[in-house]
Amino acid sequence: MEPRVALITGATRGIGYAAAARLAALGYRVVVAGRDPGAADRAAAEVGGVPLVLDVTREADAGRAVAFVEAEFGRLDALVNNAGVLLDREEAGLGVALEKVRATLEVNALGALRLAQAFAPMMVRQRYGRIVNVSSIMGSLAQAGPGYLAYRTSKAALNMITRVLAAELTGTGVLVNAVHPGWVRTRMGGPEAPLSPEEGARALVWAATLPEDGPTGGFFQGEGKPLPW
Ligand SMILES: NC(=O)c1ccc[n+]([C@@H]2O[C@H](COP(=O)([O-])OP(=O)(O)OC[C@H]3O[C@@H](n4cnc5c(N)ncnc54)[C@H](OP(=O)(O)O)[C@@H]3O)[C@@H](O)[C@H]2O)c1
Fold first, then answer.
1. Which of 8, 13, 158 to mutate to test the pocket of ligand 1 (most atoms within 8 A of CB)?
2. Dihedral sign (CA 82, 60, 86, 175)
3. What is the number of domains present in the chain?
4. CATH number at residue 146
5. What's the domain range around 80?
């Protein structure tokens, strides 16, 4: 069988980079997507993947990504929507600038939806696909607290996007799940976080490589521990 193909957004550093390296080690052809061309080239060379310039907020970039994957591999087996921003760290929701909320939604929620919409038809055609939305427990309605309104709202929206797409794709061979990587030592997570990027990436890799009878429309931490919405 041909090797499977995975595309990871925001794969130039942090959890996305670690997921790209792991999937490559598992034998996947990996498209290392990043918005900075130099960073994408470097990361792809390091993990043994192919670079792709992709800003998830740009419609034209999504179209180019589909054309690139189609031409290069003719299929996409796993889409890992990992790119994310945290713009309202430690800020109160009552004071956060709406522009920050809008910019956060644009990357964390709409960026993931844009790419899922772009690649789902290819996955449905081949009757196989895994869409992994890298969410956060901060987006859980059940566990919501004060602050981080923009970030929490964007991840809650991403969770709903996950549920709706999973329902619409039931029976097509395409599984769609949201995962929480845990608190991870990256530029976003900071130096105090308990998990390494490699440990955080386990949830992404698990959801990207689910077997045919794997779950869809779920929210998980680690390798399949369900989380409250
Ligand atoms: N770290 C944690 O503790 C933690 C916990 C829960 C969830 N998460 C989630 O895990 C994911 C990865 O986070 P991380 O901790 O690895 O953060 P990170 O080190 O800050 O990396 C974020 C990545 O997203 C990319 N990115 C940002 N905006 C983008 C855009 N418009 N288009 C394409 N790429 C873009 C960044 O690219 P540039 O290098 O170009 O900026 C970078 O590669 C995020 O979705 C985050 O919300 C993280």
1. 13
2. negative
3. 1
4. 3.40.50.720
5. 5-226
Centroid of ligand 1 to alpha carbon of 38 (angstroms): 17
Distance CA 134, CA 182 (A): 11
Q: Residue 2: pLDDT band by 50, 70, 90 thresholds?
A: confident
pTM: 0.99
pLDDT number for residue 205: 98
**Are residues 199 and 158 in contact, defined by beta-carbon separation less than 8 angstroms?**
no
Ligand 1, CB cutoff 6 Å, lining residues: 9-10, 12-16, 34-36, 39, 55-57, 82-85, 107, 111, 134, 136, 180-181, 183-184, 186-189, 193
Residue 189 near residue 140 (C-beta atoms within 8 A): no
Choose which residue among 104, 186, 227 to substitute to test ligand 1 binding: the one with the highest number of ligand atoms within 8 A of its C-beta. 186
Mean pLDDT, the chain, rounded, equals 98
Distance from C-alpha of 228 to C-alpha of 221, rounded to nearest angstrom: 10
Task: Kindly give, in sequence order, each residue whose CB lies less than 8 Å from that of residue 133, ignoring residues fewer than 6 positions away.
Answer: 81, 112, 116, 158, 159, 161, 162, 176, 177, 178, 179
Helices (H) and strands (E) in the chain, counts: 7, 8
Contact of 24 with 48, CB cutoff 8 Å: yes
Residue 134 identity: V
CA distances to 43, 52, 90 from 93, in Å: 35, 35, 9
